[in-house]
Design brief:
Number of strands: 7
Shape: globular
Number of domains: 1
Structural class: alpha+beta
CATH class: Alpha Beta
Protein name: DUF3558 family protein
Pfam family, one: DUF3558
Organism: Actinoalloteichus fjordicus
CATH architecture: 3-Layer(aba) Sandwich
């Protein structure tokens, strides 16, 4: 029986991407960061929110933080660093009736909403192949487009995140 030599496959890492989502070419790192520090007080106020976020925890145990505006709008950030990044979101794409792929500050992202994004809009940004930042914006109805608000928050945060080591 003849055998052929093959190069060994590189070792799999626990966070390897499944390839559903675009790869993050310039990864950042959310691990160990306080989610409430991602939006600086100056940026929060510039976007119409109070300077300080309120720490929370999602039902899944991920760290989150919310900021409120005087007009009744709210933005909530969720940092997910323990699963499969955007691949996990892409694997649930059928749950979202509103789905748009885009880039935010050079990072792959999706606008993903279970319904028509009128008063609530969410963007999920791939920060690294195994990390994402979920931005959910709830408008008060009088303060404009929820998707424009969520996008403005994402664009103010992503460029400031620390590079992955």
């Amino acid at each position: 029986m003849e055998t052929t030599e093959q190069s060994p496959a590189p070792p799999a890492e626990s966070g390897d991407s499944t390839g559903l989502a675009p790869s993050v070419s310039e990864p950042k790192d959310l691990a160990g960061l306080d989610v409430c520090t991602l939006l600086t007080p100056e940026s929060a106020e510039g976007l119409g929110f109070g300077p300080d976020g309120e720490p929370r925890t999602t039902g899944g145990g991920s760290a989150s933080c919310s900021w409120d505006s005087a007009e009744g709008a709210r933005v909530t950030l969720v940092a997910d660093v323990d699963r499969q990044g955007l691949d996990e979101v892409y694997s649930r794409q059928s749950l979202y009736s509103d789905w748009e792929e885009l880039e935010i500050a050079g990072h792959p992202a999706v606008r993903a909403n279970e319904g028509e994004p009128t008063s609530m809009c969410g963007y999920i940004v791939g920060i690294a192949d195994t990390q994402y930042l979920d931005i959910n914006y709830f408008s008060s109805g009088s303060d404009g487009d929820a998707c424009a608000g969520a996008l403005a928050v994402a664009e103010s945060i992503v460029p400031t995140l620390p590079d992955a080591n």
